[in-house]
Amino acid sequence: MALNKNSPRVLVVDDEPGLADLIASALKFAGFQPEVATNGTGAIKKYLADKFDIIILDVMLPDMNGFDLAKKISTSAPRTPILFLTAKDSTEDKIRGLTVGGDDYVTKPFSLEELVARVNAILRRAGNDAGGSGRVEFHGLEMDEETREVRRDGKLIDLTTTEFRLLHYLLSNAKKVVTRAQIMDYVWNYDFGGDSGILETYISYLRKKVDFKEPKLIHTVRGFGYVIKNKENP
Amino acid sequence: MALNKNSPRVLVVDDEPGLADLIASALKFAGFQPEVATNGTGAIKKYLADKFDIIILDVMLPDMNGFDLAKKISTSAPRTPILFLTAKDSTEDKIRGLTVGGDDYVTKPFSLEELVARVNAILRRAGNDAGGSGRVEFHGLEMDEETREVRRDGKLIDLTTTEFRLLHYLLSNAKKVVTRAQIMDYVWNYDFGGDSGILETYISYLRKKVDFKEPKLIHTVRGFGYVIKNKENP
DNA sequence: ATTAAGCTGTAAATTTCCTTAAAATTTGCA
DNA sequence: TGCAAATTTTAAGGAAATTTACAGCTTAAT
Question: N or C terminus of chain A with fewer C-beta within 10 Å?
């Protein structure tokens, strides 16, 4: 997770400071160098001052339409790809027309897992990839993002989308304890209100599907969260 | 996807940076080495500096008529084939006259699938083929880009254009899960806005036509996209 | 032993997908 | 040009998978 000079720079533009910060911290955690702007003018200033590899842009800004901002930016020569954030209801079709080039869009509310995945996808397409091979592995438990295949000791296992996301998050943080709050923020939509033990339910699903034999890899840290590790062979 | 030295070089000339980038990324994905120019003078500069195997040229340029640019280029000794991009309405006949030798043209808006297919066809004709045989095959399901023939276990199958494009995209990404968004962007015209389940409809058509027997090759990845693979013999 | 936290099965709610039919559009041909 | 056929797109009902809520039970900590 070392933030070296070569980690891609991301400009996050959202008028909701809390959300912008949430996104920024998730990006930093994923190995990017985020910068935050909370309005259009600030965004332009930062954009002109620095080079960014990608811009995450809310289409709803207080002082400026996100579309216009995008247009301003898209005229510069080495075009910076944009990931639009948009409300679910409207504008979806409008966005579709705009996402020409390396662009993409995510509808609010989204999960940070998804957002980071999209950013990675865009950068991969643009060629200035951060690195990751798209595979995660830990003691015989492997996941491949490309094929979406999951294996335990070679045996193929079928997971639903949420199961896949959860396991992927745990696995890419292997040996590190992650809190339930972190998991909820990352795997579920950031504004997900209810928590009627849905995380426990999915942990239960995962244990049944991928962690049914020794050595157990998914461990509960009571009062805190979960961790993937191998107790017998640390 | 390894971009080796021998992958054909393509010069993409379009004044809309977003579209030029879109084309470039699609070409890169297909194994070419694209270079982008957004106006006539820039194109000429790049053309003189480097050798290209093919030029993709929008006939509508800000500083120069695409036709004139084509004429300038066509005087050089080993003529570089040109794929013209043109608006649907007019100029069709004009283009016809210009498409000598290995040339061809595509009307806007086009699908990336189609564009890449045309580029491949031209290069094949010109003899400096990428190496791709123009055939894709996976567990008894074969497609030939040149003849547009599709076979399942040897038996010839008739597909419409869209069906062919969709299947070809899935097949050339065999074993990799592709998202619906990726499919929509690549197979349908790049400015296609709506998505009222048209993808599902075509998947349904394909299943009926080419995937009616075991082992099933087209699989749904719920909440994500589709993938072509053989579950029984992975 | 008490209490809080976590696990798991069941069922309801929701989402996603498939299929079919019909409308709209394009293409081919006379 | 204009009609007929083929293709593409939209729309709707229903089926199936997934997600969510919740209740009863188990486990761990003190």
Answer: C
